[in-house]
Amino acid sequence: MINFILFGPPGSGKGTYSKKIVEDLGLIHISTGDLLRSEIEKKTDLGMQAKSKMEKGEFVPDETVISMIEGILCENDLAKGFVFDGFPRTVAQAQAFDTMLHKYNQSIRQVIAFEVEEEELISRIMARGKESGRADDQNYDVIKNRIAVYHSKTEPVKEYYKAQKKLSVVINEGKIDEVYAKVSSILSV
Ligand code: AMP
Fold first, then answer.
1. CA triplet 129, 135, 140: central angle to 5 degrees?
2. What number does the ligand 1 atom closest to the CA of 149 have?
3. Of 97, 114, 147, 109, the residue nearest 14 (C-alpha)
4. How far, in Å, is the centroid of ligand 1 from the Cα of 66?
């Protein structure tokens, strides 16, 4: 399997470029945010537990997302590979993920970390919220909290993968095709 992680703060382009990679390479897109929103829509117990956390811009428990990911890996053991978007988001998730991948004889090929200025992030998230109706993309305080949580809990995950020599940073500025050219050059390494 060929597995990539798309990493970065909310609004940094993970979803946009995941879709392009999936189209190009025939991989499966796994967004923990999308999976959680679908649980909320279906009104499952898991969804109901995640809802209040997500509304405040806080993380759902590590165990919840780790077991969702494991379920998908088990169900798709013949897949060509995955693009993980929004996971792992804590060092504990990254460690548990490595243990899980090892168990299934899999590994991460590369982590592509997007960087975008904070003001630009906020305006991109607000624009996305207007289009999608996503509540956590429309409330300024929630957006600020998600960015703060990214800095405190998620950014340390970069060092984790840097130590494994798997981290590539992409400054997401400019046209989508230009940025995707940079992403593509990493995919083919
Ligand atoms: P996203 O769609 O990736 O922006 O995620 C939306 C929300 O889902 C986040 O603000 C978190 O509340 C929750 N979430 C998504 N992925 C994770 C994760 N890996 N760990 C914890 N919470 C997550």
1. 75
2. 10
3. 114
4. 12
The answer to whether residue 107 scores a pLDDT higher than 90 is yes
For ligand 1, atom 10: residue with the closest CA? 57
- Which residue among 60, 122, 160 is best mutated to probe the pocket of ligand 1, counting the most ligand atoms within 8 A of its Cβ? 60
Q: Which residues line ligand 1 (CB under 6 A)?
A: 10, 32-33, 36, 53-54, 57-60, 65, 86-87, 89, 93, 146
Query: For residue range 21-72, what is the model confidence (pLDDT) as tens digits?
Result: 999 999 999 999 999 999 999 999 999 999 999 999 999 999 999 999 999 9
Q: What is the pLDDT of residues 152-176, one digit of tens each?
A: 999 999 999 999 999 999 999 999 9
Atom of ligand 1 nearest to the CA of 34: 2
Q: Could you give the domains of the chain?
A: 2-187 (3.40.50.300)
Radius of gyration of the chain (CA): 16
With residue 85 as reference, give the H or E element that holds it. Answer: strand 81-85
